[in-house]
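Q: Hi! First time doing this. I have a protein sequence and I read that you can turn it into a structure. Is that right? Here it is:
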Amino acid sequence: MTWSDQVSRLLTLVPYLCARDWVSVAEVAKDFGVSEKQVLADLEVLVMCGLPGGLPDDLIEIDLDVARSEGLVHLHNAPMARPLRLRRDEATSLLVAVEAVREVADAKTAAVAERVLGKLAGLVGDIGTGVSIDLSVGSDAVRDRLADAISRGDQMRLTYDGAARRETTSPVVDPVAIETRDGASYLVAWALERDDWRTYKLDRIADAEPTGQATSDHGAPPVKVGWFDESTPANVVCLTLAPEASWVAEYYPTRDVEVLPGGGIRVTLPVGDPGWLTGLLLRLGDRVLAVDPPLAATEALREAAAALSQA
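A: Yes, that's right. Below is the predicted 3D structure, encoded as structure tokens:
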């Protein structure tokens, strides 16, 4: 049993004991699914808890001798048992988090999130958050199909419209999880052809069909808090853009944005795939005034030259 298990149990144990005058150690152990020895250990921790200051009146009071000798528990002076009152910012954060879960969840989980939102709204009332959730979550049908495949362990064939190479592919994958990163939802999966972990943006998955095969165990996927959290100087590019291309700073995640005289911008972008950068540079054309490092534009220049030679 870990310390986090004990903390979670103690937070529940305080209101549990406050609601009962006297209760036996055996009954507490049965209700919490632990041994009587563990209950006594929990009580030894509780008597050291309370309000800041550590004075006698600040701490929870339990007669440990009675608990050990007679097997009975009675809790006194529990300041932590007061009902929770969420501050406005805490209530807003909680509502936004649950709303985000609802946006990306499968139908079953979304229904649970909807019920939680209803209960939260009843508890905190209309707090007028003024916050809207805008996530790229793709098709509801595709997302539900992938969520079902993950729960059943079904291998899937995707129809994927890749932005980096501007082509549609049909990778066969073992789906593992659906995650939200930087305002968009992604499928984390083991790509059989690549023999490695890959991440697929949900709103670019046009279709997903089972292959009839079960997934295999590939271990745990790499953990990333954010899509660009592991960027290094080797995959960051600085673009100097004309005013007409200033929308880039609002459309893509950036490291830094500098507004230049005349309305242009100098924007630093993390680059996860060189193909994506090549596509962006070709799309912007002469609105790109400078690229640093210059080698980052090599492929775009090559493709542009090839296109001109065929004109």
